[in-house]
Amino acid sequence: MAGSGSAPAGQDPMDVLAINTIRTLSMDAVQQADSGHPGTPMAMAPVAYTLWQRFLRFDPEDPIWPNRDRFVLSVGHASMLLYSLLYLSGVKSVNADYEILGAPAVTLDDIKGFRQLDSKCPGHPEYRLVSGVETTTGPLGQGVATSVGMAIAERWLAERYNKPGFPLFGYRIYALCGDGDMMEGISGEAASIAGHLKLSNLCWIYDSNHVTIEGHTDLAFSEDVAARFLAYGWHVLRLSDANDTERLARALATAAETQDRPTLIIVESHIGYGAPHKQDTSAAHGSPLGEEEIRLTKRAYGWPEDAKFLVPDGVRERFAEGVGARGKALRTQWAEMFARYRGAHADLAREIDLMQARGLPEGWDKDIPKFPADANKGISGRDASSKVLNAIAPNLPWVLGGAADLAPSTKTRLTFEGAGDFEAGRYSGRNFHFGIREHAMAAICNGMSLSKLRSYGSGFLIFSDYMKPAIRLSALMELPVIYVFTHDSIGVGEDGPTHQPVEQLLALRSIPGLLTLRPADANEVAECWRVMLGRHHTPSCLILSRQELPTIDRDKYASADGVAKGAYVLADPPEGEPQVILIATGSEVWLCLSAFEQLAGEGVRARVVSMPSWELFEAQDQAYRDMVLPPHIRARVSVEQASTIGWDRYVGANGAKIGMHTFGASAPLKALLTKFGFTPEKIVEAARAQIAKH
Q1: In the chain, helix, strand, coil percent, each to 5?
Q2: Disulfide engineering: 444 pairs with which of 149, 273, 391, 397, CB 3.0-4.6 Å?
Q3: 395: buried, middle or exposed (CB in 10 Å: 19+, 13-18, 0-12)?
Q4: Band of residue 211 on the pLDDT scale cut at 50, 70, 90
């Protein structure tokens, strides 16, 4: 059989042919693109093929079947390995409304266009672009960390929805990772919490090939990975040869039988396997092999040396007989069981339907409180958020999350009866303790969201720096994760500049597709939650104060429902056109209202605009934006306890920007506000100067 080479003893020649098809497709695609990583797809083809063909519960005809196993290619640079699997197994496309289409997710022409403009086979797997890609994996470590969130989600779903005679959820999560994943700190954070939670539905397959871009891993990496994972509480197995598919199958079976901890399978491989003439193994990892090397490699496989993108007869049929037939049978059985479940547990079945479509139950927001005006003590943003979240969560059962060891400070604990804690062996709880692992927390929230849960994670705003890579992926994948950040400004006070965010708001606003909301009072907080949960494909960052904020009198000033438009006119002069516009977010809105009243006493007509979200405001039509910020009124002042970069778009090149131009300082709040100019008097002074200028 052409291309089967000399099959190892006991190995079906057709399986060898299929494995070599994955390898040659990967080589040819990388060579044609003149860009990419052929080594890992070549070395790990036997591993991926064995997993897909013999173990993975996945139906190519329905790649979003809720109880499917998840395969995460954490070594995203080896994307051709996944694209070859998707093509050869015949995975079908899914549209943005979660409808299965008849067209294939990946065609041979797509593979020929690997890494080209508008290709469905980009350099790293991208969620939403191609069905069968369970998560976007680019930055190393993100895939394995996200897989922990997927495993958590399965455990929670099984606890809530499985009933006697109805084992609806019982899927496994497999992640293929490499030396780079192991070096990234996020993988250690994620592995630690996975071991702590005893997530036995999770299996990482570690391609230990000892090669990175710079060369052999001896340059920078010499730890005993097995010992580290044993210390994390994982089950660790070793496979000395990636081509020994029978021993791999036994390891995967052992992993599936392990019920008390996650499993790490360490697979020793030689990068660019089958390319014996390639002396520079790091180049095989990160660049095309070259035409001559490809011919020699194909000769070693018993492959036609000059054939390109060859898929021999019988290969796709072999995939159909394996993963295709098994997946279809399992999915059909599940669908029949779910139909019976609807009759026995109608309310729970409706929840599952809504969740899978990212819908919301009727009346989910009916208990959101309205907060009475309080110009004196008021309530902090974090406390108001806690009240709102605990009013929503009982009516939206799949809202769940926690904090990176800061729930008492971020006030994100669900306190209603039955909320409970998510713990090892007790997976029904909705409060998560992520530990001091901000980066992994954000990636885990992505994994939970990919499983259709409405996840949230919380911390201090300053620590968004530790989370930004995963937040960026939330936006890239259009996942409606909610990030709750408190201690939002120099209002942190005595903790000092290390804990006082200055540039973080700007950094978050710079991420395309991310909503950043900084509410001014408790009623704006309530509206922010309504906005965030109402968006099904948009991640959000809710930026909250630690300190109490006066609750604005909405009978005197405008309603907080203007939050939905990002910015709104909060206060206007009783008569006449405004002479100056004061624009602020968060705690600084009250300062502007105080300045507004002072200016009114002097006969100066001011307008106060509360602008909790730049992104929502920019999404409004020009007529609305011009109504809030009339272009001809050029006297403007912005006030925000953060970097002033970007405020030019709202106050103009000559507008006044009261903000932070340095780091903060350690001192009581009132002293800081005076030092850095966040007082009504400074705002009044800036407003007068603007009127005089314009």
Answers
A1: 45, 15, 40
A2: 149
A3: middle
A4: confident
Distance from C-alpha of 199 to C-alpha of 191, rounded to nearest angstrom: 10
**Torsion angle defined by CA atoms of residues 420, 423, 428 and 429, in that order, rounded to the nearest 10 degrees:** 30
Query: Per-residue pLDDT tens for 69-114?
Result: 999 999 999 999 999 999 999 999 998 888 888 899 999 999 999 9
Q: Is 438 an active-site residue? A: yes
The per-residue DSSP string of 281-331 comes to: HHHHHHS---HHHHHHHHHHHT--TT--S---TTHHHHHIIIIIHHHHHHH
Please state the separation of Cα 304 from the chain's center in Å.
43
Say if CB 274 and CB 297 are below 8 A apart.
yes
Residue type, position 60, single letter: P
pLDDT at 496: 92
Could you give the CA distance from residue 10 to residue 244 in angstroms, rounded to a whole number?
Answer: 10
Which structure tokens are listed for 47? 């591993």
* HEC readout, 60-80: CCCCCCCCCCEEEECCHHHHH
Question: What digits encode the pLDDT tens for the residues 284-304?
Answer: 456 788 999 999 999 999 999
Chain position carrying tokens 């009240």: 387
**pLDDT of res. 225:** 96
- Quote the CA–CA distance of 127 and 142 in Å, as a whole number: 13
pLDDT at 37: 86
Q: How many helices (H) and strands (E) does the chain have?
A: 26, 22
Structure tokens at 162: 């499985």
Q: Give the pLDDT confidence of 592-639 residue by residue, as tens digits.
A: 999 999 999 999 999 999 999 999 999 999 999 999 999 999 999 999
Q: Per residue in 118-150, is it b (16+ CB within 10 Å) or e — as a string?
A: ebbbbbbbbbeebbbbbbbbbbbbbbbbbbbbb
- Distance separating alpha carbons of residues 516 and 360, to the nearest angstrom: 22
Residue pair 609/582 in contact (Cβ under 8 Å)? The answer is: yes
pTM: 0.96
The answer, yes or no, to whether residue 17 has pLDDT greater than 90, is: yes
Q: Point out which residues pair with 401 in neighbouring strands.
A: 431, 456
The number of angstroms, rounded, from the C-alpha of 313 to the middle of its chain's C-alpha atoms is: 40
Q: What is the 3-state secondary structure (H, E, C) of 336-358?
A: HHHHHHHHHCHHHHHHHHHHHCC
User: Within 429-540, where are the H helices?
Assistant: 438-450, 464-477, 504-509, 522-534
CATH architecture, range 13-331: 3-Layer(aba) Sandwich (3.40)
* Catalytic residue (choose from 126, 293, 438, 640): 438
Over residues 495-512, the pLDDT tens digits come to 999 999 999 999 999 999
Phi, psi dihedral angles at 347 (to 5 degrees): -65, -45
Answer yes or no: CATH 3.40.50.920 is held by domain 560-693.
Answer: yes
Q: Are 13-331 and 374-550 the same fold in CATH?
A: yes
Determine how many CB atoms are found less than 10 A away from the CB of residue 374. 16
How far the first Cα of the chain sits from its last, in Å, is 84
Give bridge partners of residue 482 from the DSSP assignment.
Answer: 456, 540
Of the candidates 563, 378, 409, the residue with the CA atom closest to the CA atom of residue 486: 409
Q: Would you list the domain boundaries of the chain?
A: 13-331, 374-550, 560-693
Q: Which residues contact 438 (CB under 8 A, 6 or more apart)?
A: 404, 459, 463, 466, 467
Instruction: Give the β-pairing of 548-551 and 656-660.
Output: unpaired
Nearest of 513, 474, 447, 509 to residue 647 by alpha carbon: 509
Q: Residue 434 phi/psi, 5° resolution?
A: -80, -10
CA dihedral 673, 675, 676, 680 (to 10 degrees): 50
Residue 53 sits at the vertex; the CA angle it makes with 113 and 128, to the nearest 5 degrees, is: 40
